[in-house]
Every structure is written in structure tokens, then in C-alpha cells.
Amino acid sequence: MTSTDVIISEKNLILETGLIAKQADGSVVARYGDTMVLATAVASRTTVEGKDFFPLTIDYIEKAYAAGKIPGGFLKREGRLSEKEVLTSRLIDRPIRPLFKKGFNSETQGIVSVLSYGDENIADILGITAISAALLISDIPFEDAVAAVRVGRLDGNIVINPGFDEMASLDLALVVAGTADAVTMVEGGGFEIPEDVLVAAIDRAHEEIKKIIGAQNLLREKVGKPKRAVAEVKENEALAASVKESCIAKMQESIRIPDKLKRQKTLDGILDETIKHLTTADPEVNVREIAKYFEHLEQDLVRNSILNEGIRADGRGTDEVRKIDCHLNMLPRAHGSALFVRGETQALVAVTLGTSSDEQRVDSLDGDTYKSFMLHYNFPPFSVGEVKPLRSPGRREIGHGALAERSIKAVLPGADEFPYTIRIVSDILESNGSSSMASVCGSTLALMDAGVPIKAPVAGIAMGLIKEGEKVVVLTDILGLEDHFGDMDFKVSGTTTGITAFQMDVKIKGVSREIMIGALEKARLGRLHILGKISEAIAAPRADLSKNAPRIFQMKIKAEKIKDVIGSGGKVIKGIIEQTGVKIDINDEGIVTIASNDEASLSKARAIVEGIVEDAQVGRIYTGKVKKIMDFGAFVEILPGTDGLLHISQISDKRVNKVTDELKEDDEVVVKVIEIDRAGKIKLSRKEAMKDAAKQTAT
After folding, report:
1. What cofactor does its activity depend on (predicted)?
2. How many domains does the chain have?
3. In sequence order, which residues have a C-beta less than 8 Å from that of residue 68 and are 6 or more positions away?
4. 408-424, pLDDT tens digit by residue?
């Protein structure tokens, strides 16, 4: 077994290889504290032909035994990937993918398995470092080491790899990945964080990343295998020249057609003409190669037009945001809804408000947790004019939904102020760039339409990058075409005050600090422009909730009263629900939540519960029911579950020989509380209650 190690944030990060999973092309166990992950990398020996993307698959798997748990559910074994595992798989994939040698096109699979789960809050981050190390020591042509750390801000100070106990106190939390030379990926969010704080955190993270990369390179020096040869891609220069000659004039015009569908239809027609022309001249020519060189030419023309002329496909300036339209209250039965339109991207967003019983239970290695806020993103095929079978949400949909959810979460009211479970659904109806950021904007509109008291409106914008040598252009509000042919996808969301979510991915080997700072400033200006458009549509949350939303009342009761509200076998609470039609939840802390769409029913249920938990007060008059007759008096229930003693001497202002001469069980009687002793025993007087009633009548 061979290992290297490095100290990160006062803990030892150890990379080991040579003991387990030796038949993989590369395998590394990474350990940090009590957290251990195994990363394996295997690449097929054959090349995949005909794919226009690198066939890489990354899977992150959490083993229940890693946390000393047995999986929940019927099967009692790990099943399909959870949402967290999907998001982490994407997190690992994104900084790894750009670093394989160009021309390598074999099926490649990386698997990160969590073997031990400590409280370091690092298994996902450790996976990026571990898979990089496994690829680095393998014969797979992976060109440069990449590593990652989690960085946060706690009490104004930047911390590296904060633990679970610190996460709730952070106002900024990021995952930063990079090579020794540059940052390649950033993902995370915060509570309205200024741009300069974000840059400082990324800078600090990169310092630690360089140390981890040093440990990886040392491991490669010790046990690294020679990299397998990658056949040089031989370009058919003659065919490329023929394609260019045949269609460049028409293509130069068509790439500047503003309408996406019209532009694509025109380009498809030019490609068909080009194929027909070239195959007529040479029937043996490879049609797939013609299509490849056609796309290469399109990419070159789009990039050169932006770099050299400052002209984008839809005619906008590089800093210009597309036309924005905001439509509110689109769906009459939803609790809040909006249609956000930016150029050719549309997001229909609906808000649904529920009670605590609607919270999502999440079973993970961290234990069972509950989510009271969910944002789900859907991307149907018709949104881009395609025909595809409908499946369950894919990795992209889960990832985009998580990014939008993070963007909005920072401005939601606390449970004590707004005790609702909130679900947002964003259905993308049209897409031409940045549908996740459109979901953020649409969510803000729909929440305010629903009357949810958010702290501030949030908007999101996607930035792009075109870089050729020293020439650099940062693009505001990118189109799908610019995303496809560009070098960076840089998403920023936030309020007028600061950033709530941030995600950066690059297709090149990293971006400089200067480019990042410039992009953040342009994103800030674009975000402020969009927030201005949102405020024109709706300046603040509506004063009242939708008439379709449930009304919720919360109260805290004493722990010893919980059993009184629930009753034996749930008899009391079921009776209240049957009588009023409301929903009632009681937690172990004594928080009673009553929800109903009908105000009258809610008020009735509230009065019943308040009556059950009310404490008797000296001097107060109650109408009670005689529960038990004794020789010395009667026990009267003045509140649900609360009895007091009405002594025979207090039944009347006249002498009473026998209690049964005046009272019988189930009689209703008006009594006054005259004393509550230290033991909580209540003494009642009917005589005093009658005197008080007589005085009021006389007045």
C-alpha cells in the first residue's frame, strides 16, 4: 500500500492506494478524520464512435453502513440514487470532465463510494479529490489533477471544511474545485453576500486546493502508470475546406437570425444542401464528417463574431439582457403563480402552501431530516421543440431545481413567522438559455403573488465566456447557442444587497481571478436590471394569502397538556378534526398547528384547543359539569380535563344537608374559583358565583 498526506484545516487528508480495488484502472481511498471514500476509475479499451460528447459517467454512492445505519424501506438495501447522491455525482463530474486528453473517447466510469461517514461534512468534497487521484495514477489519459474544499464564512471569518456543527451558523457556504493553476468550478450560496467576500472565499479555497494537488502529484510519482496512447485525431482538411467553401456565406447570415427556431431551421436547411452538394460530387464522402465540420464552422463563426465584432446571434450587446415580461396570478387555483419570460425562455411557476404534515422526510447518512421548502424543476421536451419520452426527473432537472432552491431559500421567512410548508414547481415552457435562472425569477414573482413574506426579491442571471488566447469577452444573459459554443457557464442569483447562490462551470482548464471579478460585476448589473423589472410587476408580497391557501394558527402549550389535547388513543384530537374539519399537528415541544381553508372552522378548533389547555384562574367564573358526587361535596369539571372541588358548604348561601339535594351528576353549574393551593388543587364556590351574578344584575 502506498499513501501520501497533507494537513488541511488542522486535519490530515490521507490518500492511499494498492490495498483494495486493484483491478480497477485506478483506485484511491481518501480519508479525512473519520470520513473515508473509495474512488475507482475504469475506462474501456475500445473507442466510442459517433458521439459528440465524452462518454463519462460519475456515480457517488452512500453506503448506509458508513454511518452505522440500516436502510429504511421494505428492501433494506441501497436502491437507486437519492437526490443528494445525484447532486453529488454532478458535483464531482463537472470539474473532472474538462481535464481528459482531447481525442480520448472511450467509455469511462468513476464510482465514489462512501465507506465511513464522520462528522466532518466532507464526503462529497472528498469524492472530487479521490476520483482525481484515482484517474491521475491510472493509465487513463487524465491530464491534470483537480481537488476541492468546502469554504464558508463564520462570524466574519473564512473557514475551510466547516463541520456539521458549524454549517447552520455560516452566512456563506461554497464548494470550490480547481487545478493548481485555476479555479474550475464553484457552487454554493449565502445570505446576500457581497461580491468581494465571495472572491476572497474562492481565493482562500484555492490556496488549500494547491496543497491537496501536491499530495496527488506525489502519489502519481510513486505509483502512477504510463498513460495509454490516444490516437491523434486526423482531420480531413480537404473536406473541412469544402464544407466551408460550400456554406460559409449562407451560414454567416443565418447565425445572426434572432429567432432560435428559425435560425436552427435555416441552419438545418444549409446543412442538408451542403451534404447533397458534397455527396453528389463524391458519393464516398462521410456524411457524419460533413456534419462535424459544419458544426465546427458554426462554432468558429459564432465565437469570432462575438470576439472580433461584438455581435451576438440575436443582435444584443455583450452586456444586454433580453426583453423581460412578468405575468402574475396565471393559475386561478394555485396559491401563487407567475409566468416569467426572458427572450425565448419561459418559466411557469406555481407555489403551493401546506402544513407540517406536508414536509418531505429525507433519510440520509446524517439521519432523518425534514424539508419544509422544496423547489422542483421540470424540463419537458416540447420546451425546445423536441420529441422525447417523458421520464422521471434526470440529473440535469434535479441539479437545476437544487440551484434555484438554494437561490430562494435565503430569503424565506422563518417557521415562527410563517409556519407553512412551501412547494414551488417551475415548468419550463420554452428554453433558449438560462432556464434555471428564469425559475429563480419566476419563483420570486409566484411567492410574492402568494403573499409569502419573503425578505427581498431574488433574481438570477447566467453569464458566458468566449476566450481565444488573450481575447476575452464576458457575455450577459447567454443564449443556448452561446452556452453550447462558449467556455463558461456562470450563474449568479441574489437580491439588490448581495448573492444568494452561485454556480460556475468551465469547459476550459480554468478562469483567472480577473475574469471572475469582471463577470461578477456584470452579473450584478444584470441582476439589478432584472430585479427592476420584477418590482415593476409586483413591488412587495401581497398583504393577504390566496383565498385557496390554508390558514394556519400556531400556539405553544405546556408539555403536560399535550396528552389532554390528543386524548386516549387520539380520541380528543380526532373528535376536534371530525367536528371542525381542520388539520391539527402537535409536536413533542408542544407546538400545536391548526390549519384550515375555512376561517370559521379554524376559529372553532382554536377555541376548543385553547379551552382544553387553559389553566384555571382564581376569581374567574366558569360554567362546569358535575362529574362526581361525594358526601362532602362535588367535583366539577370547569375546563376539559380540569376538575375542582365544590365543597358542600360552598354550594348555596343556605344550609345544605346532602349534596344530592342540590346537585346530581352531569348537571351544569356556574362556579367561581376561590383558591388554587400549592399542589394545584382547585377549590370552587357556587355561592360566591351567585353573589357576583346578583351584584351584576343589581348594577
Report:
1. Mg(2+)
2. 5
3. none
4. 999 999 988 899 999 99
